[in-house]
Amino acid sequence: MRLRTRLGRPPTARRHPCAASAAATVAVRSAALAAVGIAVHTAVNARLLRTAPPAGTVTEAVSVLLPVRDEAAHLDDCLAALLATTGVPRLEIVVYDDGSTDGTDRLLAAWARRDRRVVALRGEAPPSGWLGKPHACARAAAVARGSVFVFVDADVRLAPDGLARAVLLLRASGLDLVSPYPRQEALGVAERLVQPLLSWLWLALLPLRVAERSPRPSLSAAGGQFLCVDAVAYRRAGGHAAVRDQIIEDVALLRAVKRAGGRGVVVDGTPLAANRMYPDWPSLRDGYAKSLAAAGGSPAASAAQVGLLGWLYVLPALAALRGRPAGVIGYLAGVVSRTIAAHRTGGRRWPDPLAHPVSIGLLGYLTAVSWWRRRRGQATWKGRPVIASTDRWMAGVHPRERPEQPPG
């Protein structure tokens, strides 16, 4: 006769819920412990983050390279800020208009007539095997004469001394590439939920001082919004031709520099520049849908990354709602980490970090949208497809072994 409990059920009938509860407890406690460790690492990185030296004069020639496509709304403010630069007497600004249709070309021509430091170039669609931004950057770099190349996006506004201080930091650090991360302006609800994750991710998860000296591609973070690179190191790495089909071309460029023996890292750009990447939900959604799949590399890798972040920050928050102390600790650790990152990079320290689990959930949703569009061949940006010719995840697209070089 089978052994039964007082309630008439076999003992094994009660083990499964207990085992599940124990597993959940372990998962929450381990996530909380890891989140605390990441918060500590965030604080350490915040102290180690390289900052620009005081304003001074740059004696070498500096070329600012500005790729634009349909940037009529931003071009005037961007160029006005660049031309107000102090401390860089040997400055040229090479602007490559990538087939704009909104009047950007007319605005650019007017600026070139007014100030000889502005060099205006115009092209059409990139050749086969190239994406638009790498092609525009390569064309601008081909005519640049400076010993330092500074790539800037049109929605970035540099401080008057921002350019000089960035170049001085590049030289003082002894690195080949530095990427000053601009202060992110986030006004709408979606922006405030998602945009702070950009700086938080590398500040919390990337060991900065190890990364800047390591040749490992995985230890790379950079932002094409504002990126300074030694011209010799850029050419030695193959320039943007080496990353011609890369959607996240900024990180890919840093990896190319590392492969060529150089070194680089993301640095503090908070006092040097500011930008508002996406002014509304549709542009934010489309921007992340363009790049998050490429950041993951494969659907499985993206799922693993989102799952890891969910375990670290969503699971403890859910446990905290049920009154579990470990969940409260894990949730607060995530809030502290976000607060440290916001304080260090000029973001909102209150109350936005309280919504960190929601931010992680929204990042997961955007990652799913990105893969959905990519698999269906619907990933576009400014009217052009952003699926590279080597993208094996897009149905019906076959890789090219030798993409064409940019003309000219």
Compute the separation of the termini in Å.
89 Å
Radius of gyration: 24 Å
CATH structural fold name of the largest domain: Spore Coat Polysaccharide Biosynthesis Protein SpsA, Chain A
Quickly give the CATH architecture of the largest domain: Alpha-Beta Complex
Please outline the major beta sheet: 8 strands, mixed
Give the CATH level 1 class of the largest domain: Alpha Beta
The main sheet orders its strands as 3-2-1-4-7-6-8-5
Query: What would you call the quaternary organization?
Result: single chain
Counting DSSP E segments of at least 2 residues, the number of strands comes to 10
Q: How would the global form be characterised?
A: globular
Structural class: alpha/beta
Strand content: 5-15%
* Series of secondary-structure elements, N-terminal to C-terminal: HEHEHEHEEHEHHHEHHEHHHHEE
Query: What ranges have pLDDT less than 50 throughout 5 or more consecutive residues?
Result: 1-7, 389-408
Any idea how many domains? 2
Helix fraction bin: 40-55%
Given the structure, what is the number of helices?
14
Mean pLDDT across all amino acids? 90
CATH homology group of the largest domain? Spore Coat Polysaccharide Biosynthesis Protein SpsA, Chain A
